[in-house]
Amino acid sequence: MSNLFWLTDAQMARLEPFFPKSHGKPRVDDRRVLSGIIFINRNGLRWCDAPKEYGPPKTLYNRWKRWGDKGVFARMMEGLASEAAVPRTVMIDATYLKAHRTATSLRSKKGGQAIRGVV
């Protein structure tokens, strides 16, 4: 797969201060795992569909789950947003909405009036 995502040296340098300390056994390559996590989330893939270049899917999931529970990713986002030289609004949103054709069934049948605020 030629369109894999890899964090650059500059991006890793900005993220490293937010990494938790490694206790005991050293972690596997942070660049590989974080790049894999970003690739999976960006493309909406299942963990088992991770390209082999990022390592075992279980490793990606475990790091995502552990660091997410510890608030590491939230601290990364807050820290990166606060580093902005010029004060500005930074909005980070990963939601994806898709309207389905059956959403029109929310209309009221009473007198042909639509429910206020819904349609």
Written description of the protein model:
By secondary structure, this protein is mostly helical. The protein has one domain. 39% of the residues lie in helices and 0% in strands. The longest helix is centred in the N-terminal third of the chain and has 14 residues, at 30-43. The protein is globular. The mean pLDDT is 81.
Largest sheet: none
The poorly predicted ranges are none
How far apart are the first and last residues' alpha carbons, in Å? 43 Å
Number of strands: 0
Q: Give the CA-based shape.
A: globular
The helix count comes to 4
Helix content: 25-40%
Instruction: Please identify the structural class as seen in this structure.
Output: mainly alpha
Q: What value does the average pLDDT take?
A: 81
Number of self-contained structural domains: 1
What are its keywords?
globular; mainly alpha; 39% helix; 0% strand; 119 residues
Briefly characterize the structure.
The protein has 119 residues and is mainly α.
Question: Strands, helices and their partners?
Answer:
Layout: H1 9-15, H2 30-43, H3 57-70, H4 72-82
Helix pairs in contact: 2-3
Domain Insertion element IS402-like: 7-77
InterPro entries: IS402-like_dom, Transposase_6_like
Pfam families: DUF4096
